[in-house]
Each structure stands twice: as C-alpha cells, then as structure tokens.
Design a protein that fits this description.
The protein has 123 residues and is an alpha/beta fold. It contains five helices and five strands; from the N terminus they run E-H-E-H-E-H-E-H-E-H. The termini are close together.
Length: 123
C-alpha cells in the first residue's frame, strides 16, 4: 500500500526540496502539499495521511499551532509529525517535541538526516 505524506511549508521551493530528498530515499509514497497550517488541516480531513513533514514559520496557522491543534484530536495522536524547519534554537526543538512532534529536522535537509529520522518511525 502506498503511503501518503503531507508536506506543509509556505515555500514551494522548500516543499520540492523536501519531496526530492524524500524520493531519493526510494520510499514509495504519494505526496500532498499545503502552504500553511490552515490548508494542512483541510488536507488531513480529506486524505488518509501517514506522515506529516511540517515547517514552523507559515502564515495563517504556524506549524507549532497546527501541531497543537492536531495533537488535541485523538484520531491524530499517533500520526508521525516531523518538524522540518530553520528554527534551530534549542528551545524551539524542546517546544515542538513537548507539543507532540515525533522528531525535528533543521533545514537544510539532507539524505543522511532524513534517513536517520525516518528509520525511527513506521511508514
């Protein structure tokens, strides 16, 4: 069964970089995209998503606010959500993990880090 990955980032270039990096790992999946947290909520309601790759800084609904909202809904409590962001400060990482992020990747992304993070979750 092909898994669905939701890539949430306000930069189309960044969404493409994340998808390309992910694809280079040869994990068969289908990508859906959202440019902010608000759009991502709609995508989650309309698709069966197996993994969310989530930016922090976005208009309308930030990645952290999206994360808090999703984790408050029991149906998404086990959905793997990896923050993929340029927010590198230790307190940001702690805040994201405390609010339910499965893992945290600091941009720029690369195959090695992606492989390491993805190996910890079941897709």
């Amino acid at each position: 069964m092909i898994k669905t990955v939701l890539v949430v980032d306000d930069s189309r270039i960044m969404r493409n970089i994340v998808k390309n990096t992910f694809s280079e790992l040869r994990i068969p999946c289908e990508f859906i995209e959202a440019c902010n947290g608000k759009e991502a909520l709609v995508m989650l309601q309309n698709h069966k998503v197996h993994l969310v790759l989530l930016d922090w800084n976005m208009p309308q609904l930030s990645g952290l606010d999206f994360l808090k909202k999703i984790r408050s809904l029991p149906v998404y409590k086990n959905l793997p959500i990896i923050m993929v962001t340029s927010e590198a400060a230790r307190y940001n990482v702690i805040e994201a993990l405390k609010n339910g992020a499965t893992d945290y990747i600091i941009k720029p992304v690369n195959d090695r880090i992606f492989t390491e993070k993805l190996s910890k979750i079941t897709l």
